[in-house]
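Standup notes, protein team

Yesterday: finished cleaning the Nitrincola nitratireducens set.
Today: YqgF/RNase H-like domain-containing protein structure.
Blockers: none.

Input for YqgF/RNase H-like domain-containing protein:
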Amino acid sequence: MIEEAWSKRLRPQLETELVKQMRESADAVAIDVFAKNLKDLLLAAPAGAKATLGLDPGLRTGTKLAVVSATGQLLAYDTIYPHAPHHKEAQALDTLTRLIKKHDVELIAIGNGTASRETQTLVSQLQTLIGQSAPTAVLVSEAGASVYSASALAAAEFPDLDVSIRGAVSIARRLQDPLAELVKIDPQSIGVGQYQHDIDQKALASKLDDVVEDCVNYVGVDLNMASEALLSRVAGLNSTLASNIVAWRNASGRFEQRKQLLKVPRLGPKAFEQCAGFLRIRNGAEL
């Protein structure tokens, strides 16, 4: 009777409980690792406010390119076909040289996906061709770029732009300011580690969201440059208030003082008290 109770009742229950505890412990450690990886990505040093050429490499479908201004505004875009099976290398170099000179491009961001090595070789040839004034090239992770390019946020910003070109814009902006661009993407789509889909998704999403908010508030936000997605991560603000801030800024011009936030619809003293310390104003009456 005792052996039967142990083998059929107690042992299976204990084994189940033990496996559950070990699984939860392993999940907790994995989530901490993924959170650290995400923090490192978000707090990567920005290249700064410089005109940037973003390249989203491809073979058969071509390499998509986008030039963005120092403030991240789209200036020009195109598609080149330097690699197999097209081999239009000379034409691609001409297009790149023309855009770089026209828009005074200082940086080239190359996506690290398919054909990235071939594109790096092409850019190296381009730098030799231009000489000492050639832009600096940097390899950029394109994890999650396709998610952003197909999102409602990207569609609202670039309604008439092809999805693949939006990806090139995102790659360029990631080099300029990784944090400002990556907050637009679901943290779980950024690529924070292997087997992230095998653990507790609710706990992972909660932890990664906390990391994003902590990073935004740790670095601070430029009130006159920040996107709605970035502002919504600031303590005391939500998507509605962030949208109202951007709308007020577009209608009334740049903020010169933080107290002007009180003129934004639905942003009261409590929200102002919580968010003001995390908002910066460059070249204004306040830092």
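Follow-up from PR in the comments: The chain has three domains: 2-44, 52-176, 220-280.
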